[in-house]
Amino acid sequence: MASESSLVHSSQEHRDPMILTFVDQTHDAHAAARDAAETRRREELNRDDGRIKRFLRNIWMGENGIAGRYYFEKYKQEALERIQQEGDINALSGDASRIRELAQSATISRFQSEYEEMIHEAAGERREELSGDSAFGEAMKGLIRRYASGSITSPEVLREEKNRILSTLGAKDGGLLSEGGVKIDNLAQIAETVRGAVEHGESLEDLLNGMKIYTGESRAGVRTEAHLNKVDRAVEKLQESKVGSLVSPESISMAAAIATGVARAGKGTLLRAIGVTAIPGVVGGVLAGIRENKRVKEERAIHAREVAQGGLFSREGRRGAIEETRYDTVAAVHITESLTAIMSKEEVASDDLQQLYQILADTEARVRLSDERRIDLISFSGMANVAVERFDLDLARARAKVLLGGRIGDLPEAMRNDLGIQDGDTAEQAIARSTDALLKIEDGMTAKDRAFAKLKQRRVAVATATGFASSFLVGVAAQEAAAFASTNYDGLVEHLVSSKSPSEGGSQTMLEGVFHGQDASVQVNTIETSDTYISHDAGGYGGIIDLPSNYSLENNPDGTFTIISPDGSIFARDIALEADGSLSVATIDSLRSDGAIVVDATTTITDTESVVRNLTVDEYVSHHSDFTTTVQRDFWYDNDTAAFDQNELRVHWAGDQGRGSDGSIMLSTAAMTADGSYHGSESTVWADRASAGSLKFAVSASIDSQNQVFMIDVAPDGGIIIPPDHPAAGLFSTDDTGQVVFNGAYGEVVEIRETIDGVVHMSPLATMEGDNSVMTIPTQVTTAIETTVPKFSITPPDIQQTIEVPAREVEGFGGPAIITRRPLENIARRRSGYYSQYRYGEYALNGEYADQIETFSPTLRENPRAQLDIEKELDWYDRQLTDTDPHYADEIKKIIDGIPEERRVSNDLKMIVTIPVAAASEADNIYNTLQLLSRQDPESVAKTQVLLNMNWLDDAESDPKKAAAIQKTLREIERAQADSPELRVAIMKRIYNRDTVEKTGGIIGYVARDLYTAALSSLREYNEARRREGERPADPIIQRYDADIRGMSRHAWRKIQEKARQYPQADILKGVTRLGTDSYRDSPGFGMVTEISTTLAALATRGGRVHTGGANFGIKASTLAAVGGLGPVVHTGVGSDDVELGRRVAAARLGVVVSGRDDYLYDYHTPSSSTDVIKLVNGSTIETDDTRFLRRYKSGDWWQSVWSGDNGVGSFNQGAGGYSPRDQDGVATGLTSERLTDETVKTLERNISEELSYASSDRDRARVLSLIFRDAPGAYTLENRNGQCVFTLTRNGRKYLKRYIKRDKRGRRYHIGDRRRHQLYGYTANGRRRSGALMAARK
Amino acid sequence: MSTAIDNFINELLTAKKLNSLDDGVREQVRLDLLGRLSDQIDRAVIDAMSDSQIDIFTEMIDRGASRQELQAYIAQSGVDVERVTLETMLRFRALYIGE
Predict the structure, then answer these.
(1) What is the pTM of this model?
(2) Residue in A with minimal Cα distance to B75
(3) ipTM score here?
């Protein structure tokens, strides 16, 4: 046990004095967290759940994704928290806890060692011895003292107390220890040792006083660090150094000028738009290139780290390419083994020393370069093994140097001379003289760097181009899309699909600009002068300016005015008016010179005014002409009466001295006599005339105007009233006595006779003579006043408006570069212990076994023989599934939820039958298989759920033939469901990606995993429902069949269920699988071989061999859940669906080493037997298709080698890891009847030999051979050649075999093919039907 | 240099519509941008070096190499400083103004 013993030895070496060691692994923890985050993100990105999902996920959280960095940091933080929580940098390695403990122990041991090789200072490791009387040292010693004295008994308390001291004193007094982070130590071991020593009588204080305390900081992981870290470190140092900018001012200046120029180029133009659209593309491309440049460097580092940690990968894709640039590494274990092998020799010869020297020289160069340059030139077998293997290597190096140093002189002389090695050289000096190794390694590195530079250049170029193209296209597409949405943004596509005219004043997309761009132009618009006018008061001088209605006038404060054109411009500014409000000639000329028509429309306005004037009598009469009447006196009724009565004078004043109360002039004729008025023959009576209205009082203003009189009515009573406002009243006045006086010429009482030509003819009856004193009379008169109003009509000319139409604005848009980046392919981590087990057979812990144990439920881990509680195990399984792959768990749950109720068993579930159905190739079989199942005993059928995984590869859908076959398979299943509704058949349809399944070896592992997971998930739901109803949970058998069953035991399910009841502790119930008995007639040799195989398998199962090959076995649901189903997805090819399950059960229940696919399929050598674990179910036989096997047999090979992983005829490795139709590539063709020739006998012997070689015992061999050769002693010979059984027919054996094939025991011709078919399926003889053991599928 | 780089930064501020900033604030923003840009250029130049060149470069800083020495080393390291600087500036601009 090299590693572990080395550690033990190391600690023993330092037992005196004891070394209490604390190692700060915070730096390693961060590196491990980064690794874990990379792995987690990569695995999520590579998850195969459809291209679209993967693409979208890549955009979101991919390496170039929007949230890519966030997820990485999140995962890193989560990983770091887990590492800190567990205090173990390998917490996420997936390695067994024992392995991880060993790793910590190795690191502690390195830091305890006095060998200088153990501390890798160049890699950043440091170690320091703490003073024992430091506060930290005292505290730790005190803790040990308490533990040794028994005051602390529990290791947990010891740990808690230690943590308390670390947190309070660690960073302060703990030398190299930092605050927080991850630290490992050997306090518990030291405390335990001290306690033991004290119990054996040693002095506690002596032990403590002699104790050394080391603190250190480790670099326990592999060396390669992400390039980015180096950049970060260099930038940090640069900033600390105050060196300033690395780039010269000239370079920055030049770049700034160019960058600024780019930004300012041609704003608003097509050129600019192209720039705006393209520059982000350029920038996007540049950014993508920069990102790729950075990422590809990171990828190289990540890959180097992962491979150095033992990662396994396929040399394809990105991994394959990057692997070509990885520095060559040498396995640490290989170097250690080589050095150890030499040092272990009893006598180390000179040649051995030379070899040792050369190994050391190479190794030292590798260690130095690795440590100094943070690269990996040494590899390890697993993440947690790094510490152990590094310790082993360092120890071996140190010891080898000790050996070499003591025997420098024994090196071959020629070599010493060549290298100049001196006798007195130390080992270090001697090694330093050889530079070949270093140069060789560096040459190799340089070559890899060159390869990497090319790879990087290529990747960067592609990324840059992709970045540019995607950014440009996104930008252009975004513009065109926006153009549809915006009314004033015109796009080319919009232009093409719609006939809309360009938007007014809108802008164009870049494409539209390219194809329909519009340059700047000049447009002339005529604004016509209106023919309607509006008058404006202008200038405040009473001037009026008429302007066309589309012009306006603005009066300025200084009295001038301005004419505003319809377009807002000023036609004439600050026009001044003359004092009379007119336009001056100069102004008019000026306006006319501007094209205006100016018309002088000045007008005179006449008005009247009322004034009091002293009018002459004539004027007065004339002024009141409306009140005067033109008269002619025809004659006077004078006083020619017989008696002089003076009637003609009898007009008297009336009223108060001739005035009425209202100021009127009052007179009266009442004093006149009726007969006093005669003139000649004419006479009149005043009273009559007055009553007739023809008696008037005519007032003459003057003598001269007596033909124009004021005519006043005389009332019938003779009353004459002249109103005060009557013009005639103006001819009267009042004297001093108050008597009214008539100042006119005459006041005559007249008879109106007639009116001729407007002249009233009258004859006076009486006359009052006035004093004719009136010269002027003040009179209110109205006079006309004429006013001149200046008015001009100004008609400006039409406006010819010149409009500059700018070029249509072309808008660019720089789209973001969308570049998804394919991550590195997943890496399969080789679990720690793998090589160790191989190399160090004495290792107590088997790595693979330990690995598997980690995937079993806690119940099984604690007690492999535990009786399992179905609910507990299902809960654990579900939790595991959800924790490790929540997407998958959710996916399966959705499938389960989608199963219709009528297709589920609702009560007393005893079995869940799982069948993979390759939809592209089982169309002709699945109906028959389901029919056979439906013909089982009805009570068994009622308790059995059938679950089909109808699946196909994604590329099958593009193949019309396969697509049709898939549809047919579905129809056949539906037909079976319709024909046998009592059979509860649930279908899950699954499509698998060819690339994905091929990478891990095939599809069947995925198909089976999905089936088992679905079965367990549905059972969990079923049991939860039962629990709610107060029923006990079911722990049914999960039975596995293939889709091509040809025959089946009538009561198989009843037998299985009975067996499960009878042996409740049994984990696996296995039936018998027969192969194509209908081929026996044509291929009797093959028939005999499969009979032997079937019988041997049955015997092995009966003997308790835990093996689950062949598609006719069941496993208890609780067991299936407890072993974690099929375990992690590693190998998914042949055997991963059935054999793997038996391996896991054997490992869980029996502790049997299970070594994965490298193990041969039928590993009879493995002591994996227990009749408690597996039971043979008699009466549960199926017959299945034999096409593949028969073809292989006919080719001369052992028929079971179809599973061997080769690519031979009928191999399951053809297609996607064993997913080709069985008749593909002529698998089922070219089969001819077999005749016993030398060649066929040889094939038969070979096949029987192989079968017998894997028999569990001689007894089984004898039993199986007796089936055929019982009656033929000496028919064969058996030899054991190096563990291989060799079966050979003798001459008699051949003869017997011919007879055996053709005849029955009684010598009747009865071919073995018929015999077996009749036995299995019955026959009809003499009209009677004899039933067989099996039901045949109906054709 | 000052004019070209100032123009570049001013153009950035204009494009970002930060012209109305108070003079004092604007100056502070300008200095911040200058500092950030300078850091990014330095980082980009270092990032363009190979791992081994970075190791040597770091060693040079550790032993107190002057700026001239470091610039000379970068010049002979094969890094296209002008291109890296221009790319960084364009990237800086694109990121800053979100164009």
Answers:
(1) 0.47
(2) A247
(3) 0.88
